[in-house]
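#struct-help
A.M.: can someone run this one for me? Single chain, 246 residues.
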Amino acid sequence: MSTTAALEIAVTSPAGAIVARDGGADRVELCVGLELGGLTPSQALVEATHETGIPAHALVRSRPGGFVYDDGDIELMVREVRSVLRSGAAGVVVGALRPDHNLDEDALRRFVDAARSVSTTAEVTLHRAIDHAVDPVSAAATLDALGFTRVLTSGAAPTAVAGADTITRMVEAAGPVQVMAGAGVTPADVPALVATGAAAVHLSAKRAAPGSAHEGVPMGGADDGSAHFETDLDVVRAARAALDAR
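D.P.: on it. Structure tokens below:
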């Protein structure tokens, strides 16, 4: 008997978590700076999201940019792993690469060990750093030994649908580690992604928040005055319906 794939929604606020919960999501990935690919949320944000009742997996990424980190970056993220779990996160989402773009197994072990030192049941997800690895399929085969629960991937493609064939191979290679398909996902993509054997589908279900754009003096080099995002209930519900129809 087949099992319905889980639905994970990327959110940046307790309000987004409530929308995801009410739309039928199984869990959320919590971060800030979604337009930068996501960064570590604050302690208060994790605490407030935990209070919504939906399991929240906190992204731990100390800065934007690539996934090759120095000792200072790694030490900070080890601390952040412990902090977000102590603040109520059900799991963490982490990743790191070596300069040769293979997985940085030493750093990943430190992240996993830090998580399990706080909670033996903490779930640990490898984020889309794997899509920047030399060989994502071979990398997926190492994750069980490293202690990971799941991996989020687009199959090393710009969108998960475009990487569906590679995701299928990653599912076969990952063994007991869950593979979660994500990147550019819409509800219409769900059937193709479920067909890969993925255990979960991940999407941001975002829309521009009305009236949130600003004009005038830029607030930083990447500030173009654009609106910030909020979670769209209709998109979450449509994704849930697409999964339940499988």
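A.M.: thanks! The chain has a mean pLDDT of 93.
D.P.: also worth noting: Residues 6-211+227-244 form a domain with the TIM Barrel fold (CATH 3.20.20.380).
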